[in-house]
């Protein structure tokens, strides 16, 4: 079994894209969440090796979810998924403990590079 990943994004097609990239590269996508609250719940349930976390989501945004997950496990490995123009939020997230970030639209090479580095 590959290393396990929880994918968090409110857009189904984004989750599908990341899942496709990860699955093709040997990672095991164990769960998906569509908002921050669900992300925290699924993190506790699945204890994945890594989380890809969208920033802008309904209910609970990705930065709040990151902080909540860090309270559960200070060593949680989380990579933020940001859109253009979200630099300030990315800095916020890194300061709150995010390991790295990937920018939409995703390039498979960059996604795998970031994830393998964080998991090594
Ligand atoms: Mg979003």
TrEMBL record:
It comes from the Bacteria. Pfam families: Response_reg (PF00072). GO terms for biological process: phosphorelay signal transduction system. The keyword Phosphoprotein applies. PANTHER family: TWO-COMPONENT RESPONSE REGULATOR, TWO-COMPONENT RESPONSE REGULATOR ARR22. InterPro entries: CheY-like_superfamily, Sig_transdc_resp-reg_receiver, ST_Response_Regulator. Residues 4-119 form the Response regulatory domain. The modification 4-aspartylphosphate is found at residue 54. This is Two-component system chemotaxis response regulator CheY. Keywords: Phosphoprotein. SMART domains: REC. CDD domains: REC_CheY.
